[in-house]
Amino acid sequence: MEDDNARQLLNDLICAAKEKGADSVDAVFAQGDSLSVSWRGGKVDMLERAEGADLGLRAFIGQKQASCSTSDMSKEALKEIVDRVLSMAKAAPEDPYCGLADEGDIAKNFPSLDLSDDFDIEAPHLIELAREMEKVALDVEGVSQCESTNAGASKSSVFLAASNGFSGGYERTHYALSASALAGEGTAMERDGESVSVTHKADLPCPFEIGKKAGEKAVKNLGARKMPSCQASVVFHPEEAAGLLGNFAGVIKGSAIARGTSFLKEFMGKQVFAEGITIIDDPFRMRGLRSRSFDGEGLLPEKRTIVENGVLQTWLLDLRSARQLGLKSTGHASRGTSGVPAPSPNNFYMNGGPLIPQELMSDIKEGFYVTETMGMGVNGVTGDYSLAARGFWIEDGEISFPVNEMTIAGNLKEMFLHMTPANDLVFRHGIDAPTLRVEGMTIAGV
Fold it and tell me: Span 3-33+48-105: which CATH code?
């Protein structure tokens, strides 16, 4: 659907809902086109193309709200969704915190963030990328097979309109390459992989690089041992460090704070991380994977320092959680076509420190360099942290040999306070961190 048509559709739905009794309304329309290829064993394993559009409508009657969504854009279906959402809103419970943004607070000017390109890409090109990644991975000495290689591309657009006068939309393209390789034979096989995601195809690395890294990482894992249990320093590879930062983002969401389900609920303005640590949320990063020019409630977000010198400065708030807490929204509302908005980070990252990763671990006599964690053992209410892990053992400040079937445990409250970042921050996923060293964790093995 063309941009003007999408905007007109939303405006028509808003007007129809208002005419039938809604006090206020917002509507979101999303459409996308995606193409993906999976390559395995020298041939295409899966080739998929998907196109679709979805629409969501939210209506307020007094202090009651309801939302509905549909992928059917026929006149009959659109009339039905208006009737259905109003019927649901009348039957919904009272919610004193729901409601649209005030007209004076809505975004009116949208920064250009260069989030899309011409999306001129077809299946043969993606197939060639996936084929080359497999070939390169298999050429790495020690690799026995390539589990799979994948190449994908998508283009999406989102439009949001509301009865408070907000109207906005943006387009995004996304490209991804990944490879997973197996090294060794029989019961001694090890797996690892490499992946990358970007908004512009011009920013994709050479598939040679992805395949080679996947193969080399798998080979380095061969001969993994299981080490004795101990307490020691744990160093997190940037991919895993980003997971720790994601855990932090989860417990500073306004919804968790308002419910009292975060172990940091009493820590606004207090020391949460070690001194010197700074964490930023930036919605305006050019070509950022999580960049956006307005949030899910039509507010203009802004670049914010979330943690400064280790001290927590703000929560991530949408309108509802902000009202519950007696605060103002920070422009972090995120939403799909179904359900209601909820707070979510934008481009969320931790600044690097002064040391290169080798210097960061140079004084560790024995420790664990973690390259992968597995499981769901993170409790946002208590901060308890326990995950299966693999990686490499550190001896006398050097990465020595691979280890597997280990568990690392601690409490995030203490982990954050005893954390040191290296200087190798790279923006890869939208939530990003440099190599991180955490002191005094429990490592369980033999």
Answer: 3.30.2290.10
